[in-house]
Amino acid sequence: MGRKFIICGLTGWCMEILFTAFGSFRRRELKLMGKTSIWMFPIYGLAVLIEPAYHMVKKLPALLRGLFYSVGIFGMEFLSGSFLKKHDLCPWDYSHAKSNVNGVIRLDYTPVWMTAGLIFEKILTRK
After folding, report:
1. Of all helices (H) and strands (E), which one includes residue 54?
2. Fewer beta carbons within 10 angstroms: which end of the chain, N or C?
């Protein structure tokens, strides 16, 4: 499980760097600077929990599995974000977004988290 935790942490970091770099592109910042935080590694590493969850939902269509994963990811994002925010360490702040919850989750990111969950599912369950 330790090896998969590291793989999930590194995969999450890479996905976040790409996601934030594409955000730079939208703002016409052509350096395409992506960014993340060291705090994100263990948070993304927790995606290792998708593997046991997959065994419960593997017969569901991908859309429903993705929705299931996004709910779990929102839960972990809310818990970790609330903890980090309490200690003034949270690397993200969604307060400006209309669909934010306490500034630590954005409900409009549901498709992003659905996709991320399905990516982690593929990584963790491949033979």
Report:
1. helix 50-57
2. C
